[in-house]
């Protein structure tokens, strides 16, 4: 306890440290941006500080925020708005207390992936802007919550959240009778279920896009629709042009080319999109080989173009709980406030278009991805994992898992007209070699490549055995 005394911390808030955690010392700082007695969302913003003398891997650390539920059958969902460590590296799950009190019967437990790294002595995680809300989006009463303080609008040490290191309590005072206990030292003998299968007979979709034109009858017969007319996303007044979705020779076969053309005006902007007609894809492995382009084929560079591969369930109403989306979005010239190449992997729970309110989380990479890349998304009942060229780049859990069937989509569109204001026409290309989906199977990147190679060796240009429901 000498370390916390020297640091001026609230030592009285600490319980005796178990021997297994005695070497590590952590403190928690709390504030809230939703200070009312009731709120649409509870917003426990947190920071952790290493007050000890050894580095602490954050993947070993959990934080608990305790609250009184609004009813025994009420469900809650977690979201991360922003974090210095990256929302993709922060998890949130809910638990029920074994000894309920007048101010707490549940808790939100915050955890960290390996991507969050470690805290060296004296280091702080920085801001973690966290929130949770009722699954039915009803108002939450938080004035009776154990860990809540509407007066704490600036970060300060807070003893009513607890910090656990490898399951052992190292900071804070839990509600009476609810001290967290370390996890068992032996792993469970039964492996977790779900995912990891490689059933060769699993329902699957494969398309190598060997069509003649966007009006080829086989496109519709194979379950695709090519977008036309106007409408979002992107610049209002731009046109979705089927004629600019073409199929071009590349080596030994064809690839699909999604061209975006603009002269810096909405009327002079043509975009492309192709989507499955069936909303029948949920858990499983999604993969595509995609060629991004950083520069136009002619004319000035700099437009805020968006080159994508994604899956989604449509939004039928503001904050629709059944909406979902998992995006790869590559912005070769930046956009949305970014000024350089950036790839986003974004998982969506829901949103309200007006006024804007988004419940999502994302990973990101600041680098050029010009050229061909293997993109992959796996979804099971616990997580969404994004891969680029065989490497994991983001992992997201609840509340972002899809609730129902989804479409598969590729589009190439212009975010705004601010990137390049010249009037010289210019065109950008995004190309797709193939798309592959296998239902309810979480495959490794190597397994995907093996399956695609097998299909091509067998001369399979198209296959769809995924049931419609």
Automatic annotation (TrEMBL):
Signal peptide segment: 1-21
Extract the CDD domains matched here. Answer: Glyco_hydrolase_16 (cd00413)
Q: Does the keyword Glycoprotein apply?
A: no
Spell out the Pfam families in the cross-references: CBM_3
- What region holds the GH16 domain? 174-443
List residues of the CBM3 domain: 22-176
Task: Report the domain of life of the source organism.
Answer: Bacteria
Comp. bias regions, Pro residues: 180-191
Question: Which UniProt keywords are present, listed alphabetically?
Answer: Signal
Give the region (Disordered) as residue ranges: 166-201
Stated name of the protein: Cellulose binding domain-containing protein
| Organism phylogeny | Bacteria, Bacillati, Actinomycetota, Actinomycetes, Kitasatosporales
């Amino acid at each position: 306890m000498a370390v916390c005394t020297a640091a001026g911390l609230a030592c009285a808030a600490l319980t005796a440290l178990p021997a297994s955690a005695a070497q590590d010392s952590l403190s928690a700082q709390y504030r809230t941006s939703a200070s009312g007695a009731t709120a649409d969302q509870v917003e426990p913003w947190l920071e952790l500080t290493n007050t000890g003398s050894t580095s602490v891997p954050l993947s070993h650390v959990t934080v608990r925020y305790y609250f009184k539920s609004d009813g025994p059958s009420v469900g809650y969902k977690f979201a991360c708005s922003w974090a210095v460590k990256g929302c993709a590296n922060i998890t949130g799950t809910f638990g029920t207390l074994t000894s309920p009190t007048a101010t707490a019967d549940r808790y939100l437990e915050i955890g960290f992936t390996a991507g969050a790294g470690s805290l060296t002595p004296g280091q702080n995680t920085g801001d973690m802007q966290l929130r949770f809300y009722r699954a039915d989006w009803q108002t939450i009463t938080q004035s009776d919550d154990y860990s809540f303080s509407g007066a704490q609008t600036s970060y300060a040490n807070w003893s009513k959240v607890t910090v656990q290191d490898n399951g052992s309590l190292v900071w804070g005072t839990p509600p009476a009778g609810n001290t967290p206990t370390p996890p068992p030292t032996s792993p469970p003998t039964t492996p977790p279920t779900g995912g990891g299968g490689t059933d060769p007979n699993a329902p699957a979709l494969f398309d190598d896009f060997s069509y003649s034109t966007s009006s080829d009858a086989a496109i519709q017969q194979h379950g695709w629709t090519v977008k036309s007319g106007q409408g979002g996303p992107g610049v209002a007044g731009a046109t979705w042009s089927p004629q600019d979705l073409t199929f071009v020779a590349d080596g030994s076969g064809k690839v699909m080319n999604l061209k975006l053309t603009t002269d810096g005006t909405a009327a002079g902007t043509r975009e492309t999109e192709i989507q499955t007609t069936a909303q029948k894809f949920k858990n499983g492995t999604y993969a595509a080989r995609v060629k991004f382009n950083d520069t136009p084929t002619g004319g000035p560079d700099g437009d805020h173009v968006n080159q994508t591969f994604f899956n989604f369930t449509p939004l039928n109403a503001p904050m629709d709980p059944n909406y979902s989306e998992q995006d790869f979005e590559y912005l070769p010239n930046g956009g949305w406030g970014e000024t350089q190449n950036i790839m986003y992997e974004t998982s969506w729970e829901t949103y309200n278009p007006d006024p804007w309110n988004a419940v999502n989380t994302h990973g990101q990479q600041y680098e050029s991805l010009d050229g061909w890349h293997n993109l992959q998304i796996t979804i099971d009942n616990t997580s969404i994992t994004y891969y680029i060229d065989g490497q994991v780049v983001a992992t997201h859990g609840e509340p972002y898992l899809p609730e129902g069937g989804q479409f598969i989509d590729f589009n190439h569109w212009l975010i705004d007209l601010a990137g390049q204001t010249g009037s010289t026409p210019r065109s950008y290309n995004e190309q797709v070699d193939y798309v592959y989906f296998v239902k309810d199977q979480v495959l490794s990147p190597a397994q995907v490549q093996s399956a695609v190679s097998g299909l091509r060796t067998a001369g399979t240009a198209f296959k769809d055995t995924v049931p419609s429901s």
